[in-house]
Design brief:
0% strand
């Protein structure tokens, strides 16, 4: 699940950042750190559309043995990520299954991403001044 989802998720992340940074109106979001923070949050929200389903499938596969051993209701053994994905969709649907935890993921990673891009842009500007 991770091998398949990482490339598209990171492409959405960085492309989303650049597109958001370029499209934020200067009158609404002042240039500088506020623009980078807002664009970083938008990038995380977009990338979460790919990261969250990937994480849900990965976590189901990681915890399947524990669920089986504990006798949890509905516990299933998956042979591969595709089987876990199809089972998840059949039992819980897209919103209740694949995107379960999207809000929590954004709440955790959103602030970090905002700070990351503010720091990244500051470092980039500082390096450019030294050249």
């Amino acid at each position: 699940a991770v091998a398949v989802g990482t490339v598209p998720a990171n492409a959405l992340y960085f492309a989303g950042y650049e597109a958001s940074k370029a499209s934020l109106p200067a009158g609404i979001v002042p240039p500088g750190a506020a623009t980078h923070a807002a664009a970083g949050l938008a990038a995380q929200a977009l990338a979460g559309v790919a990261f969250t389903p990937m994480d849900v499938v990965k976590e189901r596969m990681q915890t399947q043995q524990l669920a089986l051993e504990s006798g949890a209701a509905g516990a299933t053994r998956y042979a591969h990520a595709g089987e876990a994905l199809s089972s998840l969709l059949a039992r819980e649907g897209v919103a209740g299954g694949l995107f379960k935890g999207y809000g929590a993921t954004l709440a955790v990673w959103g602030p970090w991403t905002m700070l990351y891009f503010v720091g990244y842009e500051a470092a980039k500007e500082g390096a450019a001044k030294r050249l």
